[in-house]
Each structure stands twice: as structure tokens, then as C-alpha cells.
Amino acid sequence: MKDPAPHPGFPVSATSMLIAAARRHLKQVISGLVEPLGLTPHQFWALLLLREIGPQTLTDLASHMWLDHPTTSRLVHALQDLGYLSIQPHPQQGRRVLIQILPERQAEVDRLAEQAEVFRSELEAGVTPEEKAAFREMMRKLLLNLEGLQAKYRGHRRDDL
């Protein structure tokens, strides 16, 4: 299969612009898949993650989703309100809660996971395992760099830049 011609801006686009474009397109495609079900892309990803790794504390779920606590808390409570999740006191960790998919919604989440697998295979079509590994390593480095930049630029005013 011949690669289609790249977007005209692709050869000169900064890495950050390419990441932003990929994120935007990914969110649009996932929105089309899950909005008919009354879900947002982040809610969809949270359900898939909980299905993959099992019950999680809020801290662990936030970490796995690359989100802060307040955002994750709102996300989890919205899914609880939609009847997908149970939030119970953690049996071993005092003040923490344990978040899990309700058994009566498991089959529906399993169907979502099947759709997600089809989407992932379509998204990654033509990408070799070596390319995936190289991409993950690059993203790891960029995320580490961004963590440092967040601290560096937090609180900057426009006049400072």
C-alpha cells in the first residue's frame, strides 16, 4: 500500500503541533464512537482502563490516565451518575476509595472494549512493532521534558515570555 501524500504542513510542523493535531483528531474520532452512548472520550478511556487493570484508587486511576485528581474525581463521579461505576471505601487503605465497574454494566463495557480494539488496530495499521516501541520511547522523553517545563513555566505572565 502506497502512503498517501502528507498534509502540506507536515514537513515543517513542530513536534508539539503534530501531537496537538493527533490529539484533536483522536478526540474527534472517539467522540463519534462514544457520544451516541452518552459518554465523553475521557469517560470511555477510564472505562477501558478499569476493565484492563481492574479496580483502582482515585490516585492510581488519575496516574494511569495522566490527569489531575480534581479532573479524575469529576470524571469518576459522572460515570457513577451514569450507572457505570461503584465507588466504595478501600478495604485496606483507610480514607481512599476503590473505583470499579458495576457488574451489571460489565457486558456493555466489554462491547466498548471490542470496539476500542478494532479502532486501535485501524489506527495502528501499517505501523511495525519497532516503530511503536520507538514512538513510545520518544513520547516517554517528551513527557518527562514537559513535566520539567510545567514547573519552569508555571506562574509565568505574558510579559515574562
Question: Can you walk me through this structure?
Answer:
It is built from six helices and two strands, in the order ααααββαα. By secondary structure, the chain is mainly alpha-helical. The chain has one domain: Winged helix-like DNA-binding domain superfamily/Winged helix DNA-binding domain (Arc Repressor Mutant, subunit A). Strands 1-2 form a two-stranded antiparallel ribbon. The longest helix is centred in the last third of the chain and has 25 residues, at 129-153. The model has no long low-confidence stretch (mean pLDDT 89).
Short description:
The chain is built from six helices and two strands. The protein has helices at residues 15-34, 41-53, 58-65, 69-81, 106-123, 129-153; strands spanning 85-89, 97-101. The radius of gyration is 19 Å and the shape is globular.
CATH class: Mainly Alpha
The tally of strands reads: 2
Radius of gyration: 19 Å
Q: What is the H/E order?
A: HHHHEEHH
- Could you name the ranges where pLDDT drops below 50 across 5 or more consecutive residues? none
- Identify the CATH architecture: Orthogonal Bundle
Number of self-contained structural domains = 1
Count helical runs. Answer: 6
Strand fraction? 5-15%
Averaged pLDDT, please? Answer: 89
Looking at the structure, the CATH topology is Arc Repressor Mutant, subunit A
Helix content: 55-70%
